[in-house]
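Summary for the steering committee. The consortium agreed at its last meeting that each partner would contribute one worked example illustrating the joint modelling workflow. Our contribution is presented below. We chose a case with several input lines so that the handling of multiple components could be demonstrated. No manual editing was applied between input and output; the record is shown as generated.
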Amino acid sequence: MVLEGEGKGSSSLVGLVGIGASAGGLEPLQEIVAGLPPDAGLAYVVVQHLSPDKPSILHQLLAEKTRLPVRMIEDGAKIVPDAIHIAPSTSDVELNSESFRLVPRDPKERPHAPIDRFFSSLARVRGRTGICVVLSGTGTDGTAGLRAVKEAGGIGIAQSSENARFPGMPNAAVATGLVDFVQPARDVPLRLADLASHFRAMSSQASRNDLHEQIEDRLSEITEIVSRTGHDFSAYKPATLIRRIARRMGLQHTRTVDAYLDRLKDDDHEAGRLLQDFLIGVTKFFRDEEVFDLVRERVIEPLAARKGEPVRIWVPGCSTGEEVYSLAMLLVEAVERHDNPAPLQIFGTDIDLGSLAHARSGRYTDAAVQNVPKRLLEQFLAADHSGYRINPRLREICVFSPHNLAQDPPFSRIDFVSCRNLLIYLSLPLQQRVIPRLHFAIRGKGHLLLGPSEGLAGDDDLFETVDKKSRLFRRRADAETRYSALADHAPRPRTGDGGAPVNWASLPVHEATRETKVEQLYLQRFAQPFALIGAAGEVVYLSEAMTAFVRPSRGAPATSIDSFLVPDLRMPVRAALSEAKGKGETHTVFDVLVGTPGERRLFDVTAAPAFEDNQFLLVLSEARLSRGSTLGEHIADRDLEERDLLTRENAALRRQLSAATAEYESSGQELRSSNEELLSMNEELQSSNEELETSREELQSINEELETVNAELTENNQRLARANSDLKNLFESTDIAVLFLDPGLHIRSFTPATTRLFGVRENDAGRPISDFASRVSYPELEEDARSVKADLQTIERELVTEKTGETYLLRMRPYRTTDDRLDGFVLTFFDISERKRTEELLARNAKEMERQYVELETLYDTTPVGLNLLDRNLRYLRINDRLAEINGHPAEAHIGRLQAEMVPDIDPKIAGLQRQVFDTGKAVIGTEVTGYTPAEPDRERVWIVDYYPVRSGEGEVFAIGSCVREITEERALVRKLAASESRLRRILDNMVAFAAVLEPDGTLGEANQPAMERAELKAEEVIGKKFWDTYWWSHSEEVAAQVRGAIERAASGEQVRYDVEVRVAGGALITIDFQVAPVMDGEGEVIELIASGYDITERRAAEVRLTMLLGELQHRVKNTLATVAAISRFLADNATSVSAYEDRLTARLEAISRTHDLLTAEGWGGASLHEVLSLEASPYQSAEISRVRVKGDDIRLDPKEVLSLGMAFHELVTNAAKYGALSTPEGEVTVTVSEGGAEWTDYPRSIVWKEKGGPEVSPPHNRSGFGSFLIEQVLARDLKGEVQLHYEEDGVRCCIGLPDGGA
Amino acid sequence: MDHNHTVMIVEDEALIGLDLARSLQKADYDVAGPFETSAEANKWLEQSAPVCALLDVNLGDGSNSFELAARLAASNIPFGFLTGYAASKGHIDQQFNDVPKLSKPCRPEEVVAMVRALSVRHS
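What follows is the complete predicted structure of the assembly.
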């Protein structure tokens, strides 16, 4: 087919055709693909119910029939126009916008509905350009999908059932009332081509808009035609209607609105289909869950809790009833919970009778109920073969009826109205009419639920909002209801009554013209009496004037002429009617006299056919007397005429009667003969019945027999099934490979273990065994089979698998049937590899044990431990060489001899123990024995002996085994070691130093006596503690930390030494030279630490003293040198010559030196006055003569006093020797010393130097001489005392007062 | 130096003290002391103030001149130490690290130079 305008269309996709088929679908599919146009621009997708287990060859079958490419759908494959896409059998197919998506099949999905699934996605993706075709098949797959396609504006086609092999699927689709075309498969391609061209024409936006405008212009005409079906769509939203009209036009391939209007006018079916399209309902169970939650909480619960009043709910526009049942479920559930016995009623109304039928049936597909919560599903829906069915309990509270919300009087006293997604189809004026109706319908403060995009159309005063989002409203009880049933238009006739459709709403009742009014007025006031009479002679209508001629008869009131009109009129009217009816034209009976109250009047009675339906207009025309006869004549004529009439009628009735009688008689004859026939037949039937009775009894008995046999067979069958199952279990559980072969060596059956040996699989039964590669090599199979067959003896063989070396024991037995007939062979393969291995293992073990026995024997003989075995009498049963050597006899010499004989010294010490072992049966271990044996009679030896009971098989102790270890040497060694250790301990304890042994982690193991005693510690106070935590270091955390650090360093191999204070008894601190040294083993591993220290407190003190002394010494030396420097400077000032200066200085230095000598000799502890004086005066003192005499006490002087006085005495003596008493032989000096005061001074100690006998003294001219300077100025200062120097004539007198002695 | 050029000398060895005094007097200084003990020096200081002071560190019998030195420092009187110990040895309290020191025996010029330096600092 060539398309207009766009040329070849294969490049663009204009629409997508989903073809669903099941059983019997191949044939129509082939028919369809064979006729498909090559370039329609449609893509075809075939979804066929196929077994997922078997590979499909559908694409091959279809490819043979068509020129179009046929391809299997792969995931993500692009949708290609003018190609046939086959859905794979293993997955379900869905559509993306331009490609296919494969969805793994859900095995739990019941029933599997791939066609619905595909159609639904087709609807979603393609919308109006989606076409679905439902072909032959059983079940209902495709129906829900078709509904979806239709709801999306797509097109549905079903194969007509008369040429479908399995009409279930197409019929279910047709039953929805939504299918656009029902036709044989061979016509489908042409239809598709038409649709494609329509799609193409519609695909341009411009043309579509153009068409829409055209439709809009003529919309009122179209709706008027549709209105004839009894529905008024004039107030519906135009856009929706236009869309649906355009779609119908497409399907009818009419391009102009005029053409479509013609079609509508001519074809009632088309009007019906358009109506159907207008009414497509969109509903489902629990649509908008949250709305339902809210309704349950706010509406249903309160209603369910309300007692005593019936609950009434109304769902206008209920479509197929899902909403009604959803609400019913919630209501019933709630009411049961509240245990409320109130009657429940839920009204579902719609104008679509098809939907209502569906709703009333209460049947829904699996897909439809998937929104129903599980608890409700289980409670209120029952699964049946085609889906689910509403259970009767729920069904009986739901009432479905046709009702037009906009036209019919509303229901009343309703508690809750759910009117969702109905108003959107209505124009605003219609909505404004509906809302007051709902307000009227709802009672009290009942609720109203609207769809999400619907509102109150401005009537906000009638309802108040409960939940804005969910559009739940509450009726305002106080608002005035603006709806009145009385003011409402007359109800239209119910649909389906066959009456003429009258559009009352559009009838211009109130708009009557003046002319009509005049006519009506005339008819009421001045017209002749007239009436409308029905076909059966009933009076349908009476005019005002006619009422005078009505006189109903007694009895049940009726409107038939005979019982309703005045008797005078009855006959003539019937006559006129009969004539008019017979001829079909107006007929008049003239001059009928009618007696009315008060007068008698003459009328002409005219009957005229009226309208079409055998109705007649009856008119009474009053005859005028002017007709030329008196009333009397007229009456006479009338009577005459009536007589004639009666005579005629009488004759006619007689004729009729005789004819009827004749007919009756012949009927009677017929009846009689029939009766006879029936009687005979009855007889026949009677006899047949008896025969049947007999047969029945026979059958009964046969049946009983069969029952018995059946029971037995059932029993047998059960046993067989059990036996079979046992056998099956045996087969499957046994590890033994068993192979059953028939006489021809074909496989009959085998156990699973056999598959390991032969590569047989479950479906290999029947194939010859020789076909299979065996893992065991068994070429002799056939030969063995022959042999078994010949002598019926079992053959056994050992077979080895080549690869793994497993060993099998094969037994081939004849297969005997129960009647002992040879029917093949049974081959049993026992895996004896394990047994083989065990045997080999045993042999190896035996050998091993033999070797071990020899080893043990050798060991017994060569072990350094002495061993023997003694019987109850302590006679040697066995003895090894070592013990024989200890005993000092050859081993053989012992056997059979008593122990007492062989080791007489030892025997008494051990015999008791050995007997004890015999008595108690318990071993005695580790006994030390000391004694002498004949081997070394002079050396005391020590052994450790063990005695073990040796039991016979019965458990009786029949011998004891001895085990003797010599420890003489070890004993000696241990003693030495102990002595050595004790010596070391003594050394350690007697050391001056402190010593301790630590573990590498610092734990104190041992401390020597000095360390413990010095701190007055007991072992338990410190041993085992960390060294740094002990008393010795407890005076300072810092010290303890330092010790810890030292120990850690030592533990890593370092030797650490430093001086540190330790705490000893009484908290005193002493300084020790502390050392931690590691002790390492042969491998350099630190095994312990030795901490040691010795008291260096004394040494420290000595060092301090020494330092002080050195300082003092330096001070003294420096002071001395300074003194010397001072002296030298004084002397230099007065020096006359260098030699004189030298002499004088030397003399002074010598004096100082002497004093120093004296002090040093005394350890600088000071000296006595005598000694100091002697130093200078000694040249003038001898044994015989002493020129310097000392009188009084000798006094002790401190070093400073010694030095000062030493220098002073030197000056005095020198001066005396030069100028004074000592310058002459007879002069002498008296030094008077007193301790305890003198008259001249306050100082306690006094020294008075007095010269006598020398030359006359005069005070020196120059008193600044060094001598006087020293004595007068220096001495007093140095002594901190008093010095007076008097130059008395008889000699110098020097008085020196000293403070209390410091020395 | 116009109104006060008295130098206080504290030295327990009278001969050495007098020698120092003589050296200073020769250089036209007045000398207070030599005092042999801190007590004497303190007593004098209660009445008078020298331009500077020379202090022997070791005043015999285990006493020293540090207390006195601290008093002088507090009174802002400059002073120098004379010591028998080697100058480098840490016998002198750290607070006097900056105090000039002379090691005995010292020459008269050294003494005068030090006093001059000290008295300049004072003025």
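Chain B has four helices and five strands. Chain B has one domain: 6-122.
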